[in-house]
């Protein structure tokens, strides 16, 4: 209905225009110097319409011509950009699928066409590296630097990752240190530096870097703790290994003391780090140097490992060592590890009765094989062989994973005296 009404309205308009054109054709005269142009008004309008149609047709043909030629060979900047973008998208798609050679080819073509050359050259370098074409990878990084001279950080990070992946740790370290000098607070550069230190087993450099990693929140508290303990365990182990050839006690202790002196006050109060240091001294036969260190720090950073170690070492003053242990025992009277250490020190001081009391008290709070063994040794020394055998047997049963029947007897080990 609406279409029919519109048709009637259009028809009426055409008839009205035709009537006007018949009744009054109009007259137009255009004169310029010696030239004149005469026409009816409606004739001039028709000429203008024809000229507009010709211009529209010619412009359309020109657009079609340039569109067709651009499809074959990109002549315009816009066509080049479209072509490069397509190459780039195809290259990154092949890169994500692991088709390294195809990705390298497409990405290099996209970079040379001028579409984001930095990103595409960096991706091409990674693809070439994965494909085993290391010379091409280096060349693409140089091209990226030439195309984007201000992008040193992005290029350096890519180069370092490629070097780490190839196992070129020394070269990677040099690259990362160069970036770290320019951007000392850059989180990803710090992560790469941490990674290369770990792979190089450069624990001293890693230990020095850890506080900065924690302060800038590059790593969380758990990773910091793990790396800290790993670093100092390795450092103390290396120092112990390097000290074994030294003749005097002072010379053997120097590498360990150097590490200890470089620690912060908080690290010296850490029970695990303190145990690593003291146990390293003991392993080198430097018990007399380990004892004062433990006496100084045990009250503030007590742990089972530390007190057990303190109970095993032999200091210059065994009586003082026992009195110190007993002073801690006043604050921890129900600690089985502390009681065991006190018993061992009482043994060294030849205080048999006190040692027995400490061992028996320790067994009340915790059944330990080494406590049974110490008490068995003490009772054997005192001539109480039956009780001594009983404690030895209990210790052996506790230390064994399982108790099996003896062959041909059907009786378990519990039926026999030791």
How would you portray this structure in words?
- Helix content is 74%, strand content 2%.
- It is an all-alpha fold and 418 residues long.
- Among the domains are: 70-149, Alpha Horseshoe (Serine Threonine Protein Phosphatase 5, Tetratricopeptide repeat); 344-401 and 414-418, Tetratricopeptide repeat domain (Serine Threonine Protein Phosphatase 5, Tetratricopeptide repeat, Alpha Horseshoe), CATH 1.25.40.10.
- The protein has a two-stranded antiparallel ribbon with strand order 1-2.
- The radius of gyration is 45 Å and the shape is elongated.
- Residues 70-75 and 402-418 have low confidence and may be disordered.
**Fraction of residues in helices?**
over 70%
What is the β-strand count?
2
- CATH topology grouping of the domain at 70-149: Serine Threonine Protein Phosphatase 5, Tetratricopeptide repeat
Q: Indicate the mean pLDDT.
A: 82
Transmembrane segments: 42-75
TPR repeats: 369-402
Protein name: Heme biosynthesis protein HemY
Function: Involved in a late step of protoheme IX synthesis.
Write the layout of secondary structure elements.
Layout: H1 2-23, E1 28-32, E2 35-39, H2 41-72, H3 77-96, H4 100-112, H5 117-130, H6 134-147, H7 152-165, H8 169-182, H9 187-200, H10 203-215, H11 221-243, H12 249-261, H13 265-268, H14 271-283, H15 287-297, H16 304-312, H17 318-329, H18 336-348, H19 352-365, H20 369-381, H21 385-399
Antiparallel strand pairs: 1-2
Protein name: Heme biosynthesis protein HemY
Subcellular location: Cell inner membrane
Main location: membrane
């Amino acid at each position: 209905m609406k279409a029919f009404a519109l048709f009637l309205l259009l028809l009426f308009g055409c008839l009205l225009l035709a009537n006007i054109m018949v009744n009054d054709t109009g007259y137009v005269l255009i004169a310029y110097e010696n030239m004149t142009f005469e026409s009816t008004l409606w004739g001039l309008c028709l000429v203008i319409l024809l000229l507009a149609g010709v211009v529209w047709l010619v412009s359309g043909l020109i657009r079609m011509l340039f569109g067709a030629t651009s499809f074959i060979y990109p002549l315009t900047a816009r066509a080049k950009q479209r072509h490069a973008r397509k190459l780039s998208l195809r290259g990154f798609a092949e890169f994500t699928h692991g088709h390294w050679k195809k990705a390298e080819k497409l990405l290099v073509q996209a970079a040379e066409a001028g579409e984001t050359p930095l990103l595409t050259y960096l991706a091409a370098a990674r693809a070439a590296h994965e494909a085993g074409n290391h010379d091409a990878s280096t060349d693409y990084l140089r091209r990226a630097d030439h195309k984007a001279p201000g992008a040193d950080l992005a290029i350096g990070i890519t180069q370092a990752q490629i070097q780490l992946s190839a196992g070129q740790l020394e070269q990677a370290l040099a690259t990362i240190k160069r970036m770290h000098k320019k951007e000392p607070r850059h989180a990803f550069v710090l992560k790469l530096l941490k990674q290369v230190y770990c792979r190089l087993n450069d624990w001293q450099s890693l230990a020095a870097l850890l506080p900065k990693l924690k302060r800038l929140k590059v790593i969380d508290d758990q990773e910091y703790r793990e790396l800290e303990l790993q670093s100092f365990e390795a450092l103390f182990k290396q120092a112990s290994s390097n000290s074994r050839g030294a003749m005097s006690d002072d010379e053997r202790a120097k590498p360990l003391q150097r590490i200890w002196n470089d620690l912060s006050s908080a690290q010296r109060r850490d029970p695990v780090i303190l145990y690593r240091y003291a146990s390293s001294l003991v392993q080198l036969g430097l018990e007399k140097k380990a004892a004062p260190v433990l006496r100084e720090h045990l009250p503030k950073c007590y742990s089972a490992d530390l007190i057990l170690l303190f109970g095993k070492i032999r200091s210059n003053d065994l009586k003082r060592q026992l009195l110190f242990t007993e002073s801690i025992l006043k604050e921890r009277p129900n600690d089985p590890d502390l009681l065991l250490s006190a018993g061992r020190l009482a043994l060294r001081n030849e205080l048999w009765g006190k040692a027995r009391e400490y061992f028996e008290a320790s067994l009340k709070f915790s059944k330990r094989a080494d406590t049974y063994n110490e008490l068995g040794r003490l009772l054997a020394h005192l001539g109480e062989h039956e009780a001594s055998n009983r404690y030895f047997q209990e210790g052996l049963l506790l230390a064994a994973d399982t108790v099996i029947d003896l062959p041909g007897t059907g009786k378990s080990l519990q039926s026999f005296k030791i």
